[in-house]
Amino acid sequence: MLSNILKLVKKEVQLEWRQKTALGTIFIYVLGTSFLIYLIFQGNITIPTWIALFWIIALFTTVNAVSKSFIKDANEQFYYLRTIATPLEIIFSKIIYNALLITVLAFVIYGVMILFFNENIADKGLFLLTIVLGSIGFSNLFTLLSAITARTQNFVLLAILGFPIILPLLLLIVKMSELSNFAIQQKDIYMNLGAIGLLDVITLILSVVLFPYIWRD
Amino acid sequence: MKNWWKYLCILLLFYTVIMGFLGPIPELNILEESIRNLYFHVPMWFAMMTLMFVSLVYSILYLSNQKIDHDIRAAAFAKVGFLFGLLGIITGSVWARATWGAWWVFEEVKLNGAAAALLVYAAYFILRGSFDDEEKKARFSAVYSIFAFVMFMVLINVIPRISNSSLHPGNGGNPGFNSYDLDSNLRIVFYPAVIGWILLSVWISTLLIRMEKIFRKKHQLDIE
What pLDDT is stored for residue B164 in this prediction? Predict the structure, then answer.
């Protein structure tokens, strides 16, 4: 099972790498949005605004990047995938791949935000950890939701379904980002990290348990 | 007496309205007469949570045996639950204006959580409308509704406890309602009110289910 998952992840990476336009689209999207926000805010913002903008850009980028993750497999590939892999292998590989993609994109956004705005988080290591944990949570939720919305012709649906559901995680991540800039008590950091980790685990379990019901057709 | 619970519902709600507006209440600053809203605002959330839980159970049942009947029930309970959630927000907003001075208070995590929970279920109805195929619609929305319920619980039960910034009684260091209710005057109306409103919400849901089934029979669709 593990080797199959790794092979499927490798397949996703190779496919993405082969179609450089798709990858280019999402990177230009990140750069464009960040630049737009830089111009709108005229170059100076406070740290809380910085954090809010960072996560808003990350969220919209995620929706755009993940929305196509099952559309590629809509036709003949779908039947082929079904014969060679179990639903569990497919959902795990998609979640792992999307988590990697979102993490990389979030790092790019982070770099661009530092470049444009002369502000930075005080505890960078903790903020990077927050990004990784947040990306995993985003991937867990949006991968399953994109599997649902791929079967409809409604392209706004992923955002409609995802935004309210991601809200608890997003609130915790924003709080955590603020704590990684300035924390009064060390205890708050651990509590928030624990809560984010717990939500990641809950969403992962739900996605993995429910995916087989979406996959059979 | 097959429908005894419907008579009980009418009886309890008459009792709630009469005792709710005329019954004795503790004398409190700021809250004053507005405390009577306790019999209306709080039971709305109990009713919503009950119905959403029932909807969750039917969604799980649908996934395990694919009976369209379970999907009809899950949708109907979620619809009425949504209605009661809206009523909970409206009654809460009126109460907030009277006691906290604003229709909507940002620092109040429970308000934002409730609004987000309503959005989650609004998305559920949009999802249901996005499928042409009956079976797909039922299956996918059942999956989403399980997600929705878990996040609903996180939004209104977990987040308010973690953030600890709430103006509601019993949260954020505020005394709970039981500390006001020393002579149990509130309690003897509140508990019947909760049961009465929950029964009413179930009653409305069963009517909705019957309507849907009659509609489907008329159009020769499957109802089992």
Answer: 62
B201 inside domain = yes
Q: Does B31 map to a domain?
A: no
Number of domains in chain B: 1
Judged against a pLDDT cut of 90, whether residue B15 lies above it is answered with yes
CA distance A102 to A16: 13
For B165, the domain range is 51-218
B143 and A160 within 8 Å at the Cβ level: the answer is: no
Query: How far apart are the C-alpha atoms of A104 and A99, rounded to whole Å?
Result: 9
CB contact residues (below 8 A), chain A span 51-110, against chain B: none
A3 touches chain B (CB under 8 A): no
Q: Does residue B103 contact residue B93 with C-beta atoms inside 8 Å? A: yes
Q: Is B43 a domain residue?
A: no
To the nearest whole angstrom, how far is the Cα of B62 from the nearest Cα of chain A? 11
pLDDT over threshold 60, residue B161: yes
From chain B, the residues in CB contact with A199 under 8 A are 154
Query: Quick one: pLDDT at residue B170?
Result: 67
Which of A143-157, B19-33, B35-49, B199-213 is most confident? B199-213
A164–B131 CB contact, under 8 Å:
no
Q: Residue B137 has which token pair? A: 């619609």
List, for chain A, all residue ranges whose pLDDT scores fall below the cut of 50. Answer: none
> Would you tell me how many other CB atoms lie within 10 Å of the CB of residue A185?
9
Contact across the interface for B130 and A157, Cβ inside 8 Å: yes
Tokens read off for B62? 């649908």
Query: Residue B130 and residue A165: Cβ atoms within 8 Å?
Result: no
pLDDT for res B13? 93
Residue B216 CB-density burial (10 A; 0-12 exposed, 13-18 middle, 19+ buried): middle
Is residue B204 a part of any domain in this protein?
Answer: yes
Question: Are B9 and B196 within 8 A, CB to CB?
Answer: yes
Q: Which of B70, B90, B94 is nearest to B222 (CA)?
A: B70
pTM of the predicted model, to two decimals? 0.88
What's residue B69's pLDDT?
92
pLDDT tens digits, residue range B62-75? Answer: 999 989 999 999 99
Query: How many other CB atoms sit within 10 Å of the CB of residue A87?
Result: 16
**A160, B131: Cβ pair inside 8 Å?**
no
pLDDT at B174 over 70: no
Q: Which pLDDT value is given to residue A107?
A: 92
Measured between CB atoms, which of B123, B136, B146 is closest to A164? B123
